[in-house]
UniProtKB/TrEMBL annotation:
It comes from the Bacteria. InterPro entries: FAD-bd_oxidored_4_C (IPR004113), FAD-bd_PCMH (IPR016166), FAD-bd_PCMH-like_sf (IPR036318), FAD-bd_PCMH_sub1 (IPR016167), FAD-bd_PCMH_sub2 (IPR016169), FAD-linked_Oxase-like_C (IPR016164), FAD-oxidored/transferase_4 (IPR051264), Oxid_FAD_bind_N (IPR006094). It comes from Orrella marina. Its cofactor is FAD. Belongs to the FAD-binding oxidoreductase/transferase type 4 family. Keywords: FAD, Flavoprotein. Pfam families: FAD-oxidase_C, FAD_binding_4. One of its GO terms (molecular function) is catalytic activity. Residues 27-208 form the FAD-binding PCMH-type domain. One of its GO terms (biological process) is respiratory electron transport chain. PROSITE patterns: FAD_PCMH (PS51387). This is Hydroxyacid dehydrogenase.
Length: 465
């Protein structure tokens, strides 16, 4: 490996340690070495070397995953392959509205490159300052703008992938239509590095919106939030970019822990049971956006659906509202470890799911606290459970398997998914057989064996064998 990538890019001992622990510090593994290739050809040569030697490979990007999908096991047999040096923007085609970038490109840098070309790359999430596009595609990341632009899968047109045998598939086609057989691109997206290693991608770009409007809404209940989402869809159509929902006590925790932030309401509205953050992106004019915003929100307030609305009047105010939402995971970290769930539920059943599951948790684990927030616009909730006042963190974590089962059983009963945007990793591999049919699992295993017959790519992730 040193001969392939250079001595300084093969890390062992202390230099390798930052790559061996996940972001949440939940998983820690060991590795023979960490290798940092600087080109697709070097990735292919490293993979072929490992394939011939029977050495497992775990790929890591920005290491911001929440399910341990980029952390090696404790055996020390694996090589960890970091895509950090694969960080170039290869091409921007404004006529075709595409950008081609390497897998290690940090999402925020990709967004800025698009912006310099007067285009928008629409994938946006809290970790965008450190997560990489390869990891985003490997986990089919979602984020705050899925409602309008879709998950990472919908934003990718083509991929470059290194196979488990060290061959390079060049699928970097900037085509919106290509009906020539099986869609290999979609096979690799969301596979979490278990079928091949994504080294580059051709992605969709969009015109930069002429105007954006952001508002925080105070609401009485989660059913009112669902009703407001329906009204916003009707009133704004495809201009509705995001619709986030947050339990009131969750935002209260944010402003208590971070006093420089505030909920922009007075009186009872500041203590509302639920809040929604919505954003409109308009292609006509600022005046048109403002008129539509005021009409739809004004009517919702007049009808009693919304208690109050704080409309951002500047970019700074808009960023402050989004900062409230994006500070929730930071507040959670300050409050201590919790049992986290990344689930999706049919939007029409979300309110019922939360009521039923909250009640079930209180019956079995009295006093635990629910931290509920997420992307209501696409049905994705972060439904987290933190300790009761008389519990220690360790006592809560001792119950986590029971909590997972209760919550995931409820998700399944509501026809939902136990992983909406964070992937499966090693956190949920044993859970899948409870909620996927034997046929689904058999088909997944057949695909894995067909592409990676030695089982060397990211072993122990996604599929429990």
């Amino acid at each position: 490996m040193q001969a392939i990538v250079g001595v300084e890019h093969v890390l062992t001992d202390e230099a390798a340690q930052p790559y061996l622990e996940d972001w949440r510090k939940r998983y820690r593994g060991q590795a023979l070495a960490v290798v940092r290739p600087g080109s697709t050809q070097e990735v292919a040569a490293v993979i072929k070397l490992c394939y011939d030697a029977g050495v497992p490979i775990v790929t890591v990007g920005g290491n911001t995953g929440l399910c341990g999908g980029a952390t090696p096991d404790s055996s020390g047999r694996s090589v960890v392959l970091s895509t950090g040096r694969l960080n170039r923007v290869r091409e921007i085609d404004t006529d075709n509205d595409t950008i081609t970038v390497e897998a290690g490109c940090v999402l925020q840098n990709l967004q800025e490159a698009a912006r310099k070309a007067d285009r928008l790359f629409a994938l946006s999430l809290a970790a965008e300052g450190s997560c990489t596009i390869g990891g985003n595609l490997a986990t089919n990341a979602g984020g705050t703008q899925v409602l309008r632009y879709g998950n990472a899968r919908e934003q990718a047109l083509g991929l470059e992938v290194v196979t488990p045998q060290g061959e390079i598939w060049d699928g970097l086609r900037g085509l919106r239509k290509d009906n020539t057989g099986y869609d290999l691109r979609d096979l690799f997206i969301g596979s979490e590095g278990t079928l091949g290693i994504i080294t580059a991608a051709t992605l969709k770009l969009y015109p930069v919106p002429v105007a954006q409007r952001t508002a925080l809404l105070a609401l009485r209940s989660l059913p009112d939030a669902v009703a407001m989402l329906s009204r916003a869809r009707s009133g704004f159509g495809p201009s509705l970019t995001g619709f986030e929902v947050m339990a009131g006590h969750v935002l209260e925790a944010v402003v208590k822990l971070f006093p420089q932030q505030r909920i922009p309401f007075d009186g009872d509205s500041a203590k509302s049971a639920w809040f929604a953050l919505l954003e409109l992106s308009d292609s006509e004019s600022a005046e048109h956006a403002q008129t539509r915003f005021e009409h739809v929100l004004g009517q919702a307030i007049e009808d009693g659906l919304v208690l109050d609305a704080a409309i951002a009047e500047s970019v700074a105010q808009s960023k402050a509202l989004w900062h409230l939402r994006e500070s929730i995971p930071l507040a959670e970290a300050e409050l201590g470890k919790s049992v986290k769930h990344d689930v999706s539920i049919p939007i029409s059943r979300i309110a019922e799911f939360v009521d039923v599951t909250n009640a079930a948790l209180q019956t079995k684990f009295p006093g635990v606290k629910n931290i509920v927030f997420g992307h209501l616009g696409d049905g994705n909730l972060h439904y987290n459970v933190s300790r009761s006042e008389d519990q220690t963190e360790q006592e809560l974590l001792g119950l986590q398997d029971q909590i997972y089962q209760l919550v995931h059983d409820s998700v399944h009963a509501f026809n939902g998914s136990i992983s909406a945007e964070h992937g499966v990793g090693q956190l949920k591999t044993r859970e899948l057989p409870r909620y996927k049919s034997e046929l689904e699992l058999r088909l997944m295993r057949q695909i894995k064996v067909a592409l990676d017959p030695k089982g060397l790519l990211n072993p122990g992730k996604v599929l429990y064998v």
